[in-house]
Amino acid sequence: MAVAKGACLNHISRESSDIRRLANFYKDIFGFEEIESPKFEFKVIWLKISPDLALHLIERSPDTKLPEGPYSASSPVLDPTHLPRGHHVCFSVSNFDSLVQSLKDKGIETFQRSVPNRPIRQVFFFDPDGNGLEVASRDE
């Protein structure tokens, strides 16, 4: 299992109609662990991967009229080669090849590229709600 060692943000939140499915994805793919969360009038799952990174999954309000994710399964754009800049969360890992193989083994469609003139490799893909993810190698 790949374990993300860093991220571009300290706290990330995602709204979902199926927070358990999303929590299981992030635990399985990145190694997040579930932590105790406060009690709200709606369901939440809090995950952490290090003291510096937390992911808050929030039950989607039934009144929400927006699509599930910015590029959700109901969206015609599910091609990771067209993941818009600035519309994804970025992680870096030291075990890049293992992560990419794990994604392939799980049937997750990915797009890989290298950063020009740098020894950084990237893989782009979507979580089950259509949120864009980027993972970069840290083997510089």
Beta-strand portion reads 25-35%
Mean pLDDT: 78
| Rg, alpha carbons | 15 Å
Number of strands: 9
User: Could you give the order of the helices and strands?
Assistant: EEHEEEEHEEE
Pick out the low-confidence regions.
5-9
Question: Distance between the terminal alpha carbons, to the nearest Å?
Answer: 21 Å
Plain-language structure description:
- By secondary structure, this protein is α+β, with helices and mostly antiparallel strands.
- Helix content is 16%, strand content 34%.
- It contains two helices and nine strands.
- It has helices at 19-30, 96-105, and strands spanning 6-7, 11-16, 33-35, 44-50, 53-59, 88-93, 111-114, 121-126, 132-137.
- The radius of gyration is 15 Å and the shape is globular.
- Mean pLDDT is 78; it is low at 5-9.
Briefly, what is this?
This protein is of the alpha+beta class and about 140 residues long. It has helices at about 20-30, 95-105; strands at about 5, 10-15, 35, 45-50, 55-60, 90-95, 110-115, 120-125, 130-135. The longest helix is centred in the first third of the chain and has 12 residues, at about 20-30.
